[in-house]
Structures are given as structure tokens and as C-alpha cells.
């Protein structure tokens, strides 16, 4: 590489000297012409004009020479910018072999989980080991550092001692890989067709919601939009966002992520597009199973909303004086308490990845990919680190809402789920559950 650099530099200097030599030709011609004119008896004014032209060309030559020297110094006589003794590779080794708490703070996961993530990307051949100076582990670490702290590329460039261009290239490469990993991780457990066993002993939910497989809700994620689309992307708080619809199971793992809608889009509209279009691959549950949804979503064969015009959120029922006073309130209270798993999942997701609360200026496609990638990492951590401190903090939280509060078959399933008879059947089921809950509650059952 050094001989090539020296060769290019020498060729540039030769070209520079040729240009300078050629640039002096007009000056000498002008001078000879001026001498001939003087001998022929030209006036003093003509002589002064010739002298001015000669001075002007001399200034041009000096300017050209300075620009050429600056160009050589800038592109060939570079002074190294990233000169810290703690290189990116050394920094990674220090974190992976040091105190485990530091790795968690920097990359938002434990050392073992980080190593396992890198190994899985290799095993699945989603991300290949680079032959350059940046290892796969370091590339993944830079990606996690950015989404886990919403740090700008320049800061990461200085921390890992690589050029900003290198950091950007690695970020895009790992983002594509994690997004692809999300296609594997973000899906329901094939054997899930009822409440998990951990809830079977809770009389508050079982057997009433026995066939419930998860919850669905929307959340707003920070976004960047061009000026002409800014107004349509402003959410309820007049901030530019994208409306993301997600489904999750009762283990706080996302089973469906549908992102990219402008912040002003209605939840029911996003919901309709998500379940009807085949390309989004909505995870329909087994026959007889259903998701819990809030009152903003329509009732359907596989979607169970609460009673309308009745107080709903669990925090509204706190305290002895605010306990449910009728069967509809009791149903809504238990429905809200169980559906809160989706709010907890959103809470963990946004707490772990601040990039979702203040999105940098990326393209729309990259912004959508970041949402999916964050959900994929979320699921990976939940699967391989059951004692992760963020999940431990959020899974028992009573009120997380304060933080944010085969193609034809799929299409036919969506149409069937929203047919009047399917809606009526789900309404009947809800009424039966409500009535039985109230009878059991009045008899001294769980609240």
C-alpha cells in the first residue's frame, strides 16, 4: 500500500509541474509581444496594460500552486486522526474480559449474551467475518453501542478508533443482519394455544382467558420525515413519529412487528392493513384462540376488546373504594391487567434502546429496519437471559403505561375474523365470561 501511495504522489507532483510549466507560456508570450510593441513605438498605456496582464497571470499561478500544495497535503500527506493507544479491538477485549456490569452498560446485554449473539450470526451465515481490521464482534458492538445510547457516528468513531465511514458501513451491515435475524425471532411459539402454565394458578385470569395467546397494541416511535410529510407524521403529542403495531406473548416477546406508518395514522387503520395484507405475515392463532386488544381495535373472531363506556385501565381500580362495582368493570379490570404485558414489553424496549425515542436522520427504510432490529435483539435477550435486569424490573410493574403509554388462506382468515357472525360470537363469549367472572367474584373469588 505504501509503494502505491508514493507512486500516486509522485505522479501527482509530475502532473503539477507540467501544469505550472504550461501556465507560464501565456506570460512569456505576452512579455515578448510587449517588447515588440515597445520597439514599434507603442504608447505607454499599452505597455501598462501588458504589465497588468502579466501580474494577473502571475497571481493565478501562485493561487494554483497553493491549491495544488494544499491538495497534496490533504490527500497524500495525511496526519493520522485516530491515534489512541486503546484501539477498538483492545477496547472490546477489555470489556469482554472485565467487569460484567460495564459490558451491560455499554451494549445493553450481558457478556455471554453478546458472545452468543455474535456466534448465532456466524452460524446462520447472516453476518460474515470480515477480512479487514474490524472483527465481527467489534462490528456488532458498534451497532449495539449506537442503538443502546443513540450515539452519533462521530462519537463511536472516536471510541472504537475507526473512520466515520467505516462505522457507518459496519452499522448498515449489522443492521441488515439483525433485521434478517428478526424474521427468525419475531414469531409466536408454534405450540402456544392458551395461557402459559405460569398463569394457570392465577384465578384472576384462569380459566377466564384460557385461550388467550397474547396482546396487540400500537406504540409511537420517534421518526424523521421530509418537510412535505412532516404534518402527516405528527402524532397525538404533535411530535413526528411512526405508528408501530405489535403483538406479544405473555413472556414479553414480540410475535409481530408492523412499522412504517405515519404518526397521525389511526390504530384501527394500521390494524386492518396488517391483518388483511398477506405480505405482512400476521401470526393468526389456532382456531378458538384470540388476542387481547384495547377499545381502539374492532372486535373479531380472534380479537377480544373490553367493554366500551366502562372504565378500563387497571390503575383506575386501585384502592378499596375503587374496586369493580359491576360485572363489566370486573371484566375490564382483569382484561386490562392481563393485556398490560404489551405495555411492559414496550417499556423494556424503549428503555433499552433510546434510539427509538429520538431517531437520527436516517432514510424511512432504515428507520423501519431499526425498529424491527431492536425488537429482534429484545427477543434474543429474553430467550437467552431470563434474569436480565431490565426484564426483571418491568415484568412485575403494575403501571407501565406512564412510560408511553399461505396468501389466500391468510386473507380469508382476516375477512372471516371480522364478519358480523364472528364479531357476534366473540361478543357472546365476552358476555359469558363477564357473567361467570362476576358470579365467581361475588362468591369470594380472586379480584
Automatic annotation (TrEMBL):
Keywords: Hydrolase, Metal-binding, Nuclease, Nucleus, Signal. Its cofactor is a divalent metal cation. It is found in: Nucleus. Residues 83-179 form the DUF8040 domain. Residues 29-56 are annotated as: Disordered. Residues 216-379 form the DDE Tnp4 domain. Belongs to the HARBI1 family. This is Uncharacterized protein.
Amino acid at each position: 500500500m505504501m509503494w502505491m501511495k508514493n507512486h500516486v504522489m509522485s505522479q501527482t507532483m509530475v502532473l503539477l509541474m507540467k501544469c505550472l510549466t504550461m501556465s507560464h507560456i501565456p506570460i512569456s508570450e505576452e512579455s515578448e509581444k510587449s517588447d515588440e510593441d515597445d520597439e514599434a513605438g507603442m504608447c505607454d498605456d499599452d505597455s501598462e496594460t501588458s504589465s497588468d496582464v502579466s501580474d494577473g497571470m502571475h497571481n493565478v499561478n501562485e493561487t494554483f500552486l497553493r491549491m495544488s500544495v494544499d491538495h497534496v497535503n490533504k490527500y497524500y500527506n495525511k496526519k493520522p486522526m485516530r491515534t489512541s493507544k486503546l484501539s477498538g479491538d483492545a477496547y472490546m477485549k477489555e470489556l469482554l474480559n472485565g467487569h460484567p456490569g460495564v459490558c451491560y452498560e455499554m451494549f445493553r446485554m450481558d457478556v455471554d449474551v453478546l458472545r452468543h449473539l455474535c456466534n448465532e450470526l456466524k452460524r446462520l451465515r447472516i453476518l460474515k467475518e470480515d477480512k479487514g481490521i474490524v472483527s465481527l464482534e467489534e462490528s456488532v458492538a458498534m451497532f449495539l453501542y449506537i442503538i443502546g445510547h443513540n450515539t452519533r457516528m462521530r462519537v463511536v468513531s472516536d471510541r472504537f478508533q475507526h473512520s466515520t465511514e467505516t462505522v457507518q458501513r459496519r452499522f448498515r451491515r449489522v443492521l441488515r443482519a439483525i433485521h434478517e435475524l428478526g424474521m427468525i425471532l419475531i414469531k409466536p411459539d408454534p405450540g402456544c394455544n392458551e395461557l402459559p402454565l405460569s398463569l394457570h394458578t392465577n384465578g384472576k385470569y384462569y380459566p377466564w382467558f384460557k385461550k388467550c395467546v397474547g396482546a396487540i397494541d400500537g406504540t409511537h416511535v420517534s421518526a424523521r420525515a421530509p418537510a412535505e410529510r412532516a404534518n402527516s407524521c405528527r402524532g397525538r403529542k404533535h411530535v413526528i413519529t411512526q405508528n408501530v403495531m405489535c403483538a406479544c406473548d405473555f413472556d414479553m416477546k414480540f410475535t409481530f412487528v408492523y412499522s412504517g406508518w405515519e404518526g397521525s395514522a389511526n390504530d384501527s387503520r394500521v390494524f386492518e392493513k396488517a391483518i388483511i395484507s398477506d405480505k405482512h405475515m400476521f401470526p393468526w392463532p389456532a382456531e378458538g384462540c384470540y388476542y387481547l386488544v384495547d377499545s381502539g381495535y374492532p372486535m373479531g373472531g380472534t380479537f377480544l376488546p373490553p367493554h366500551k363506556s366502562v372504565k378500563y385501565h387497571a390503575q383506575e381500580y386501585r384502592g378499596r373504594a375503587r374496586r369493580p362495582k359491576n360485572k363489566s368493570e370486573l371484566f375490564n379490570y382483569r382484561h386490562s391487567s392481563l393485556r398490560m404485558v404489551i405495555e411492559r414489553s414496550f417499556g423494556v424496549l424503549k428503555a433499552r434502546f433510546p434510539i427509538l425515542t429520538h431517531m437520527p436522520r436516517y432514510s424511512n427504510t432504515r428507520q423501519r429496519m431499526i425498529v424491527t432490529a431492536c425488537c429482534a435483539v429484545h427477543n434474543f435477550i429474553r430467550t437467552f437471559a431470563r434474569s436480565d435486569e431490565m426484564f426483571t424490573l418491568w415484568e412485575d410493574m403494575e403501571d407501565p403505561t406512564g412510560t408511553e403509554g399461505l396468501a389466500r388462506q391468510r386473507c380469508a382468515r382476516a375477512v372471516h375474523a371480522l364478519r358480523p357472525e364472528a364479531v357476534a360470537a366473540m361478543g357472546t363469549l365476552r358476555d359469558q365470561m363477564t357473567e361467570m367472572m362476576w358470579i365467581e367474584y361475588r362468591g369470594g373469588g380472586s379480584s
